[in-house]
């Protein structure tokens, strides 16, 4: 069938009019949405940020209203992702806020941990610990483990290495953080150092 440019637009217009007539007569839910309903980003402030999930480093725009995060989406101006996000990054909003299955309201994610916790040897439950105590305890365990497992000589060769500690970096760490972690681990003599850049 030959269809001229003018004919195409006529046909498309007729199809659209028919579709609209159907929508109006069938009380479509889409058209039933209140036209006065606020656009979700009305009165928000925007901040650019980086996705926290992997070393891809995709850019995101975080929108807040009254100090509360209300939306996260890909940043179209970011050179890495140009607005796109993988499924994991696209659900980043749920780290902090989720939809209540009962009320359909957006509520704080109750599974999100905002304080350090510790599970003591032999214990089955986790308990809260302050940041100061957590850092102090980690430092004590690192010192103790390093002192007990540090090896200076092996088969007559100076090795100065620590077998008792391993370091595994997370995908959320950027290059500068990884550099510092590597530097610190090497200074302790740790040789088992790795990082998983993506999950
Ligand atoms: S997790 Fe996905 S969205 Fe986030 S930085 Fe990696 S590729 Fe990008």
UniProtKB/TrEMBL annotation:
<keyword id="KW-0411">Iron-sulfur</keyword>
<keyword id="KW-0408">Iron</keyword>
<feature type="domain" description="4Fe-4S Mo/W bis-MGD-type">
    <location>
        <begin position="44"/>
        <end position="100"/>
    </location>
</feature>
<keyword id="KW-0004">4Fe-4S</keyword>
<dbReference type="GO" id="GO:0030151">
    <property type="term" value="F:molybdenum ion binding"/>
</dbReference>
<dbReference type="GO" id="GO:0051539">
    <property type="term" value="F:4 iron, 4 sulfur cluster binding"/>
</dbReference>
<dbReference type="GO" id="GO:0009055">
    <property type="term" value="F:electron transfer activity"/>
</dbReference>
<dbReference type="GO" id="GO:0016491">
    <property type="term" value="F:oxidoreductase activity"/>
</dbReference>
<protein>
    <submittedName>
        <fullName>Anaerobic dehydrogenases, typically selenocysteine-containing</fullName>
        <ecNumber>1.2.1.2</ecNumber>
    </submittedName>
</protein>
<dbReference type="Pfam" id="PF04879">
    <property type="entry name" value="Molybdop_Fe4S4"/>
</dbReference>
<dbReference type="InterPro" id="IPR006311">
    <property type="entry name" value="TAT_signal"/>
</dbReference>
<dbReference type="InterPro" id="IPR006963">
    <property type="entry name" value="Mopterin_OxRdtase_4Fe-4S_dom"/>
</dbReference>
<keyword id="KW-0560">Oxidoreductase</keyword>
<keyword id="KW-0479">Metal-binding</keyword>
<comment type="similarity">
    <text>Belongs to the prokaryotic molybdopterin-containing oxidoreductase family.</text>
</comment>
<dbReference type="GO" id="GO:0009061">
    <property type="term" value="P:anaerobic respiration"/>
</dbReference>
<dbReference type="GO" id="GO:0030313">
    <property type="term" value="C:cell envelope"/>
</dbReference>
């Amino acid at each position: 069938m030959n269809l001229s440019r003018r004919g195409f637009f006529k046909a498309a217009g007729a199809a659209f009019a028919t579709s609209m007539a159907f929508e109006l007569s069938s009380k479509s839910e889409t058209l039933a949405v209140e036209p006065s309903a606020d656009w979700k980003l009305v009165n928000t402030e925007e901040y650019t940020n980086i996705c926290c999930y992997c070393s891809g480093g995709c850019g995101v725009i975080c929108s807040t209203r009254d100090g509360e995060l209300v939306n996260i989406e890909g940043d179209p101006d970011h050179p890495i992702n140009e607005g796109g996000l993988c499924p994991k990054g696209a659900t980043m909003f749920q780290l902090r806020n989720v939809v209540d299955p009962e009320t359909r309201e957006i509520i704080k994610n109750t599974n999100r941990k905002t304080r350090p916790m510790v599970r003591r040897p032999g214990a089955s439950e986790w308990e809260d610990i302050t940041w100061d105590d957590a850092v102090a305890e980690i430092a004590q365990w690192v010192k103790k483990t390093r002192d007990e497992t540090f090896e200076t000589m092996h088969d007559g060769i100076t090795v100065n290495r620590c077998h008792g500690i391993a370091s595994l970096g997370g995908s959320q760490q950027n290059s500068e953080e990884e550099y510092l972690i590597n530097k610190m681990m090497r200074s302790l003599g740790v040789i088992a150092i790795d990082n998983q850049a993506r999950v």
